[in-house]
Model the fold of this input.
Amino acid sequence: MTDFDVIVIGGGAAGFYGAIHMASSNPGLKIAILEKSGQVLSKVKISGGGRCNVTHAIYDPLELTTNYPRGQRELLGPFHRHGSSNTVAFFEKHGIRLKTEPDGRIFPVSNSSQTIISLFVREIDALGVTLLKKTPVTDLAPIKSKSLSATAGWKVHTTEKTYTAGKVLLATGSDLKIWNVLRKLDYRVEPAIPSLFTFNITDERISGLQGVSTPARVEVLPRKPTSAAITLTLGSRSDKVNSLVAEGPLLITHWGMSGPAILKLSAWGALVLNACNYHFTIRINWLPYYHMNAVLKHLKEVKEVESRKTVLRTHAVDIPRRLWINLVLASEIPRDMIWSDLTKKQMEQLAHQLTRSEFRVVGKSTFKEEFVTAGGVDLKEVNFKTFESRRHANLYFAGEILNVDAVTGGFNFQNAWTGAYLAAIAIAG
Done:
């Protein structure tokens, strides 16, 4: 039987970050990281297309929380103690030069996730942290104190042997086996469902437009006209809407639609969209700053000025030309029709296609290789000052093992860094 002061279960971002901060804060601790596979930091490796999007350039904790569909309220305090600026400071202190892209995402200047992986591996080696790969954990058992009223430590059962530790940090992400171990210990664990995904759509209006990107407002419609509107809070506690709606760049793909607007909807609507088996209808305003009546008025003005030109070739609004052509044809306007011959009905149909076109979604696809899920340990089970379990002493959580997830842009990593840091400080004492 081998004993450690602390066992970190999970050799990913949260596990390594936590181990480094524990060992740095208390060099006397005997720490081990147990990783079930032969590879560590696999999600770090593929993050940001292999560049590793370490965090996002939002430095106000309240604004930062608005990117978390689950965990928004709970993370406010933790972000005040260890937010994006602390993450940036950590990497720069360890010699990693960072850059902020126009959309706020922060990457290493090297544009390589290997820069981050090498740092983590180098640091745990220098700090004397034991790394045990191919060591899957099969069970956890609390060691009771002499008074039997508290947890004095933990037995960590693996496929090969049993280890003991005074404290355990669980940083295993969406590992269903670990979730089942926790359920046996009476923890509430929400089932995993996809959070970041793209929409599968087959429609003539977007056929042949792969790669086209444009700003849009996208709304998920109720399943039935008579059903109640989907009511969610998007982004901010004060910004309540009566439907699931998002604005931002929309990317047309071979299989349907992606881009920030779609990914934001997928994250905030993860539970709702899962409940309808990813078959639903969206309404798109391709001119998000204008409503239908304003666009109709504009089209009437274009008709007067460009009366002898064909509608198809005029490109009367600020959207990609190929999209304009497809929407004109979808409005039952012949290719050779000139503006002066446009009927009132055709004008209204065109305005409708530009601002209220509906598309049927018939499934989802994973966003790149980055599989983010909603689900995990119920947030009521955790003390967010220390990320320690409220049910057992000396058991801590960090990262995606918790029912916390975020939109794309470095926010999921920031949750991992924050939780791992606060747990590490609490553990190091």
Summary: Confidence is low (pLDDT under 50) at residues 225-242. The first strand starts at residue 2 and ends at 9. The two ends are 25 Å apart (CA to CA). The chain is about 35% helix and 25% strand.
